[in-house]
Amino acid sequence: MSPKTGAKQTQTPGRVIDPATVQRYNRNANYHNIPIKKSRNDYLKQTLRKTTSKWNNAAEKAIDYDDILLPESSGYLVPEHELERTWKLKQGDLKKSADVATSQKIFDLDLPTLGPYRVDYTRNGRHLLIGGKKGHLATFNWKTGKLGCEIQVQETIRDVKWLHNETMFAVAQKKYVYIYDNTGIELHCLRNHIEVNQLEFLPYHFLMASVGNAGYLKYQDTSTGKIIAEMRTGLGRCDVMAQNRYNAIMHLGHSNGTVTLWSPNMTSPLVKMLCHRGPVTALAMDRDGLYMASAGLDGQLAIWDIRTFKPLHSYYTPTPASSLSISDLGLIGVGFGPHVHVWKDAFLTKQMSPYMTHMKPGTSVQNVRFVPYEDVLGIGHSAGVSSIAIPGAGEPNFDSLEANPYQNRKQRREAEVHSLLDKIQPEMIVMNPEFVGTLDRAPGEVIAAGKKVEYEANNPKEKYKPKHKARGKSSAKNKFIRKQKNVIHRGSAV
């Protein structure tokens, strides 16, 4: 029997499939386990059973394709008995029991005099960029330990951000934004970006976004050097920004507790949400652009559904969170005070306890970042930089055409050329990027006027009477399916 619908599932004879695995790939509209037998319409029952059977067959085929195309799987910490808790596991114990490759990813860089530090990783997860508030900059391959460059800019550093690859990075310094290459040579000084607090880079559009004390959100094309857009937020100083990787919309957190969503095509925010009762301190978006995590000075960590702009649930942090990060597989990293908490499955249901915890005594966490394609979380704090292992955080299967962790110099150059040729124009940044390729229908008034003219031309002696037909929209089958449709969570479909 299907775990959700109660209908028979047609499978290959002699084959046994885990119901949880089937549910992961099942796109059944009856997601909330409404029994089909409750329907009084026999024809509706038969139709729904056939439809459910087709959905189950599609889920079985998706499992087969997944085994072929996505051979690697992620793992998590699993307690051996009911009284054991995963959050009690320390990094020292994990380092002793893990393999050599994993244990090498757990390290601390003690830099107590030039902090607090901010960290950022490239899209393929190989290179690490660190920036201390007192002017210390360094880049290196954190897997091999090979140093790229290390410079002292003799100025305050507010934020650091890799650009399209590891050959260029941007630094928000005391007054302007500077761009350096991988050897530490200054390439550009962007004097239009003044007193910037946060930087973001849109890799598919080659746009660098900045926001700072002046309260202006600015977009600059790093391929042409032109300022694409400059919008006044009207909400004062801003030091919280995150991008939605699904549609390239920028999320800004403000001191009045609101979060605004911006596109370079509009001078006003697309959406304005009241998320907290105090200033917003941190924001993070998941990879699929479905959920947003926000933290504020009110001590709340709120989970939001971006499709409905409604809160799902919230968590309490003893100290207001200073940084948030969401991994490829949906783990939420929260940094507050000297603590770092990682929450698992926090989007689906409210969890009673964190998945893992880590504490760096005597420090203050500045920001946290998950490493792409790795079960590693990077932490920038007042005493340096730390790297801890978080099992189940990284995506195990990577697309080499998207971001290749094992690329060489030739592949990097080819990828750079292809990404420039495939650059998306800023005009296409909208809330729903799937509108491209859809049919733009004329307004209803225009269609009705055309029908009226056509009818009067063919029937000059008769008066046109519009017909309002809605055939099939209120059938018993469609009513039943429409009632079951809801927001489909991450675990229910691929």
Rough shape? globular
Strand segment tally: 28
The assigned structural class equals alpha+beta
Straight-line distance between termini? 22 Å
| Beta strand % | 25-35%
Look at the structure and name the CATH superfamily of the largest domain.
Answer: YVTN repeat-like/Quinoprotein amine dehydrogenase
The tally of structural domains comes to 2
Q: Could you estimate the helical fraction of the residues in percent?
A: 10-25%
* Number of distinct helices: 7
**What topology, given as strand order, has the largest sheet?**
1-28-27-26
CATH class of the largest domain: Mainly Beta
Mean pLDDT: 86
- What is the CATH topology assignment of the largest domain? Methylamine Dehydrogenase, Chain H
Please compute the radius of gyration using only Cα atoms. Answer: 26 Å
The description of the largest β-sheet is: 4 strands, antiparallel
Poorly predicted regions are 1-10, 487-494
State the CATH architecture of the largest domain.
Answer: 7 Propeller
Overview of this protein structure:
α1 crosses α2. The chain folds into 2 domains: 1-71 and 458-494, no CATH class; 86-389, YVTN repeat-like/Quinoprotein amine dehydrogenase (Methylamine Dehydrogenase, Chain H, 7 Propeller), CATH 2.130.10. Strands 1-28-27-26 form a 4-stranded antiparallel sheet. 35% of the residues are buried. The protein has 7 helices and 28 strands. The radius of gyration is 26 Å and the shape is globular. The model is unreliable at 1-10 and 487-494 (pLDDT under 50). A hairpin with a 3-residue loop joins β19 and β20 (300-305). The chain has 494 residues and is α+β, with helices and mostly antiparallel strands. One of its GO terms (cellular component) is small-subunit processome. It is found in: Nucleus, Nucleolus. Pfam families: BING4CT, WD40. Residues 464-488 have a biased composition (Basic residues). Involved in nucleolar processing of pre-18S ribosomal RNA.
